[in-house]
Write a structure and sequence with these properties.
With 247 residues, the protein is α+β, with helices and mostly antiparallel strands. It has helices at 88-104, 112-126, 131-145, 190-201, 214-232, and strands at 3-16, 20-27, 31-37, 56-62, 69-79, 166-168, 175-176, 187-188. Bound molecules: zinc ion. The site of zinc ion has 8 residues, from loops.
Length: 247
């Protein structure tokens, strides 16, 4: 069994057995990997604080053929994001991102764009970026990477520009104008298109800040989460802890 290594972000850990931890990693080389860190709960163990959720680490592990779990032999901390999670809203947003990555990313499949996305958002939180803005930014890119971001500019059927409002289709794969909409349940306003265009062109934190009101970000949240829930076929467990509307 050769020793493998990869850079990774720890998505979550939980205790198993008396002294071990099960670790879900999002690795740069192979996407989502699950492994057992033996002895990780012993006092003064070799993993130190490197297994905290959202730590960026270099991980060393052994992989056995046809086994889902790898054996993690060591983890070196590269960058800690422990302090940003003292803010409860940030901690909730990050566990939501972790759940989406774990649920939707096929395991053992490299995804550079998604890896860079999560790192840029972790740094955005470190620089005290707005939690709602960064959460919508993550969702927008997450939907884009998975090919689920609908065309918000034109009606899916008649291709007329959606100047005012459109309606998400029941299958959440497109937006329709008032005349073509098969169902008028989930309205999508022009702020969703503006946000999509902005997020595509800009890093998550810009010096000028983002030109979106709390209400606009709330409309973007509704549209994004409608599509996420459709594809996940359930509400993400962490979604209900996110702050929903304006305070
Ligand atoms: Zn139409």
């Amino acid at each position: 069994m050769p020793l493998e290594q990869s850079e990774a972000v720890i998505l979550r850990t939980y205790p198993i057995g008396e002294q071990d931890k099960l670790v879900v990693l999002f690795s740069q080389d192979k996407g989502v990997i699950k492994g057992v860190a033996k002895g990780a709960r012993k006092f003064g163990n070799r993993f130190g604080s490197s297994l905290e959720p959202m730590s960026r680490v270099r991980t060393f592990y052994y992989e056995k053929e046809r086994q889902e779990l790898v054996t993690i032999s060591n983890c070196d901390l590269i960058e800690s994001f422990f302090d940003v999670q003292k803010d409860l809203d940030v901690a909730c947003a990050l566990s939501y991102f972790a759940e989406l990555i774990e649920e939707f990313s096929p395991s053992r499949s490299r995804d550079d764009l998604l890896y860079r996305l999560i790192l840029s958002l972790l740094r955005g939180f470190k620089e005290k970026g707005d939690v709602r803005l960064l959460s919508r930014y993550f969702e927008s890119w997450f939907l884009r990477i998975n090919g689920w971001l609908p065309e918000f500019k034109r009606c899916q059927r008649c291709h007329k520009p959606l100047a005012e409002a459109g309606w998400l289709s029941p299958k959440r794969d497109g937006v329709y104008c008032g005349a073509c909409a098969p169902e008028k349940r989930d309205a999508v306003g022009p702020e969703v298109l503006s946000f999509t265009v902005w997020a595509k062109k800009n890093p998550p934190l810009t010096e000028a800040g983002a030109p979106f009101s709390v209400e606009a970000l709330e409309a973007v949240r509704r549209a994004h989460q409608c599509i996420i829930v459709f594809h996940l076929e359930k509400e993400p467990r962490t979604m209900r802890f996110l702050k929903k509307g304006p305070d």
